[in-house]
Amino acid sequence: MTTVVITAGHSNTDPGAVNGNITEASIATDMRNMVALYLERKDIEVVTDGNGSDNQTLRNAIKLIKQGKVAIEFHCNAFHKQSAGGVEALAQPKDKVICRALCEAVSDVMGIPTRGNDGGFKSENSGQHSRLGYVRGGGIILELFFISNPIELATYQAKKWLVAREIADVIADHVGVGCKP
């Protein structure tokens, strides 16, 4: 059986970016749970960094990476300008293909752009990012959208189950399981 690692950014004690009463950590945890559900329905073994609303620390998430054929952690971007938007994935070059596919899937469902000139793929040292422990450990950080952008946040809330299903389909294709209707 194929194993995939799916983790939620931030933790029970670190909310990440916040927009009103919505936290990045809660979005990441919900996405982790939804994607895990879709993957399990495809008979893919899923290892996560918590169940339900539990969201373990980055240190614990990094320890899980090697257990899967692929490891993905969910996050949201934020910026002081509400108009900033789009999806991107930070990873090592070995994961460029799946990163592009993940970003394209999120972009298609939400109607948002992929960030950058490489289909949403960015190396860990791009822009404001540097020395990302999850990426150095072999995982992918998927920045789903900008939580600070009210339009993207509303779109995400309306379409999150569709986003999760498409992400699960990309992962299943990547690990060679294929999509089930």
From TrEMBL:
Keyword Hydrolase annotated: yes
UniProt superkingdom: Bacteria
Lineage: Bacteria, Pseudomonadati, Pseudomonadota, Gammaproteobacteria, Moraxellales
Naturally occurring in which organism (per UniProt): Psychrobacter piscatorii
Any one GO molecular-function label of the UniProt entry: N-acetylmuramoyl-L-alanine amidase activity
Residue span(s) of domain MurNAc-LAA: 4-172
Database matches in InterPro entries: MurNAc-LAA_cat, N-acetylmuramoyl_amidase_3
SUPFAM superfamilies reported in the protein's UniProt record: Zn-dependent exopeptidases
EC number: 3.5.1.28
Protein name: N-acetylmuramoyl-L-alanine amidase
Reaction(s) the record says it catalyses: Hydrolyzes the link between N-acetylmuramoyl residues and L-amino acid residues in certain cell-wall glycopeptides
GO cellular component: outer membrane-bounded periplasmic space
Record-linked Pfam families: Amidase_3
Keywords: Hydrolase
Gene Ontology BP terms: peptidoglycan catabolic process
